[in-house]
Amino acid sequence: MRPGDVLSYDYTIAKCFMFTTMIFGIVGMLVGVIIAFQLAYPDLNYIAGQYSAFGRLRPLHTNGVVYGFMLSGIFASWYYVGQRVLKVSMAESKFLMAIGKMHFILYVIVIALAVVSLLAGVTTSKEYAELEWPIDILVVITWVLWGISIFGLIGIRREKTLYISLWYYIAAFLGVAMLYLFNNMEIPTRLLTGMGSWLHSVSMYAGTNDALVQWWWGHNAVAFVFTVAILAQVYYYLPKESGQAVFSYKLSLFSFWSLMFVYLWAGGHHLIYSTVPDWMQTMGSVFSVVLILPSWGSGINILLTMRGEWNQLRENPLIKFMLWGTTFYMFSTLEGPILSIKSVNALAHFTDWIPGHVHDGTLGWVGFMTVAALYHMAPRVFKREIYSKSLMETQFWIQTIGIVLFFSSMWIAGITQGMMWRATDEFGILSYSFIDTVEALKPYYWIRAIGGLLYLVGFFIFTYNMIKTFTSSKKLDKEPLNASPMAA
Question: Which residues contact 467 (CB under 8 A, 6 or more apart)?
Fold first, then answer.
């Protein structure tokens, strides 16, 4: 590239992942709505035999949303943000372009295999790690390809300073790579016994050790996918969209390193009152409470970036998505440590409060940030203005109402469960049977299902708005500098 030339970025791979973000988002969220209605109306479990049962659909929902929707959004943002902050185009390296295309193709194959295997009931039964060993191998290869893309692009960069977003992308890659490998160490059953299916495997760990390794991974899947990779996005998209510099670069670095150190050791709070050593349970609780500091450090840093510019909340829906998403992040990262306190956990564990906590973070933080990222990228990638600002506003309010209905109903349901399970009469006998608690929760399950349906409707509005943007919106002569152009 000669001095004075304008750098032209190649968004081929980013576009591919933008489309899969929308497709996998619809599939994962649709399955989630179905299983939410199954809890309220159990007969829905039998509409398609065993393949429509809650036990088959629930892992399909979690994997579809986490590894389909979320990861597609993360990959799309990387192939956009990485080029821009490093001042280098993917097109400058045929090798990296080939790696990017292989990354996308193998990723789609893995997701397809995951859907088929999970519907067929082929699963390890480990949370966020249900895929069996042949697919795990493909997952590792896919992840390595992403790593080559990250470090390869860094290796040919023109910008020598690594912006904070890149720190978070690198951490997401390294954290998941390490933890996924350790947790998914497994041996095919047929290799051990000479019998059974080659698809089935057993963990290399046993009993308590297996539980510890599983939740070392399980909670840090939340850390490095739900959290770290999404922070990478907001630290880029919010300053770009608002025209405001990040409030404090030092605070972003403090939050980064403290998050890296503390988050890794918080997974033990999933095993409170279990057979793991008590000191490990206590360590998980303590690190979880300390985790408030780096989490809120990032949240406050993001919110203060908008100091003096709060009027943009009225003018730009993208800012609204990002700031409201950050608010949900701060709320969820306060709620999680509270739930990890042993006395609170005694009431809340195994209740519906836990999925309520997970979803206010996932839908509010990850969902809103991913939507905002795609809305920001679309005008710059497809050279067209966003089709409809009014649809963005409608989507925002419908999804916000859906989130509030979802998590508030689950709070009430969870606390109700916990109180009913421990209630005793004057003779110390349990006052309620298990089926009594199930009957008491049915109204809240209906509210939860309606909340999830509203969020899905909002996502359909988003998808429609994006498709119209790609296909028929007004073309742009030049790239917008800050706020994305939007039609009324």
Answer: none
